[in-house]
DNA sequence: ACCATGTGGTTAATCGATGTACCAGTGGGC
DNA sequence: GCCCACTGGTACATCGATTAACCACATGGT
């Protein structure tokens, strides 16, 4: 399968070159500007000039009309807008970006180890939330995938140096996160998901009472009679890992208990399976497993079942995220809903505001809430 | 609990404005160019001019040095590159895009009904594949979400009119797909995933023998003794839906059989559950269900189990896509691997080639293959 | 009659990089 | 000694939109 760049007779009829422009290059090599883009229909996109001419005004008037700046009579404004619609013109993003030093593009960089193939569905939800706010305001979402923090930092530096983006959404806040300072240094607005920290160089966006969900989960399990709980956490360097783990241990301590075990993972399915196997083989096996995301919880359920245990009769499982899939599994997954989508929307709004956009400030009430379904049940009587 | 967007003391000390810049606008509104971007460190990014000055050459020389065009001595070239590195300069994406009419940005538009919340993990895989080829060449991926085809078309028109992208990756080819013609009319290079059709206005990219996977699945089930199979397809308007459905029915016909049922869905979990329930309630219940994607298959397994059936003892289930999750469920999901990631990479290469980039043409050998795991088993003896 | 005040535009500079046209040297051939 | 080719660069127009500065003209107050 070769590259399929057909040559076309270029600009056959009445190519309207500016006066004095050379008719064509002698060597027959298409100049870069006409290049591969030229299709048979390759209607050269109209420019502001064409619109100005069509409306019988100057280009400045057109610009002012579409941007609502300057002083333009309503009549002229209409004429301009009509002409623009007629010609199907929209201002060139590149030209506008160059002049205004603003690209209307936001970056989302997803960082994860190379061997984790599928992106966490968590990000799909987040993106949905972001897009819902960005798109209506003409903003685009530039998505990048990187393997580690070094790459991520380098990427921001490049994006900033090239002036490709107006801001960035940071996910997976780390305990000692280099990105806030980096981005501030680069002069790029940003918001950090999940860990509102007033002292940080970039504002955080997230539900309040981050720990509420896990506390509720523990309370729920205690109420069901469970006394031996284990927590399967994410990577230790993530901020929310610490928050949730502490919430877990605190809640247990409040009942005079200690966790049977707390294990950290890298969020991969493989790790979830390995840890679950280990915990379930423990002499004093936990009767309930609390996972720090749904993907791992699903793996955990599968692993338990494969080990001959029934969920929830023999072991209860709680997830975190409330991904759509969890509703349809058997048993349906008990999990913590943290409204990723809504948080994403709020993050977008916050970021847009910092980019100078006039948006109503995000209202993000609520807190993570436990959704009780079928993967949790009474403690096994044998225990 | 209100939004938690803390304000920060903005730009407190010594905002370093360029000389000659007005100290501040009288009305206190920051001018657009300084806008929100100005941080205390807001080091104005260096321009090509600064690099030229630092290297003691003209801006043209700098441009030629970094682009490898024109005639520049190796010595000067080095000096320029060093100066650029020293200053941390990269050419402005906006300026370059304006001048060259090329943005180094590719669009991926994900279309799905508004009520499907989480994006199909399928797209995560695809994006991973795309990014792997785009990023190393300095290309960015602009991601958009839309609800329906009308919105999608409008979006391409806007993106084209604004000159925001160089090309697009089209997914979910439809039987009567308006996008190829639309994009050709707009002069935008594109590739269509999944249905290589030489006659189409845009080239298709996909594994060969699209039907091989489903055929293999059917053969596998027949070999296990199944005779009553049902197929749960995607939306009828998608090309691959038809291909796979036909493959399914053909393969059965080859064995002198007919499908117990073929049902179309909108790919939502809800639909998958509903259809599964309906099929399993059939008087002559199918002993094997073949789903057209993994997400639905997982829902199908859950539904069967909830209905008191064991998988695979009472009913076998086959998925399609080979998402990572399927390996860890209980039972592990038998599915068709179509190497979404590799196809994504190939699509990126093909598209880059059409954008005038000098990339080795994608090599896409192989075909969809059945991955036999645990969700398929011998036909129940009672049948 | 005259100046302040608006109104509704226009002109021209500018954003940063690119590429064509052009120019200054420097040997080389004969 | 003269012309030519070649090397290594520079000057300037250009991409398309934005915006500060300015201007022509009408109106109203004194």
UniProtKB/TrEMBL annotation, chains A, B:
Q: Does the keyword Transcription regulation apply?
A: yes
Give the InterPro entries listed for this entry. HTH_LacI (IPR000843), LacI/GalR-like_sensor (IPR046335), Lambda_DNA-bd_dom_sf (IPR010982), Peripla_BP_I (IPR028082)
- Name the residue ranges with Low complexity bias: 13-26
Keywords assigned by UniProt? DNA-binding, Transcription, Transcription regulation
Superkingdom, according to UniProt?
Bacteria
Indicate, by first and last residue, each region the UniProt record lists as having compositional bias (Basic and acidic residues). 1-11
Q: Which GO terms describe its molecular function?
A: DNA binding
Q: For the region Disordered, what residue ranges are annotated? A: 1-45
Q: Is rRNA processing included in the keywords of this UniProt record?
A: no
Q: Where is the HTH lacI-type domain?
A: 46-100
Descriptive protein name: DNA-binding LacI/PurR family transcriptional regulator
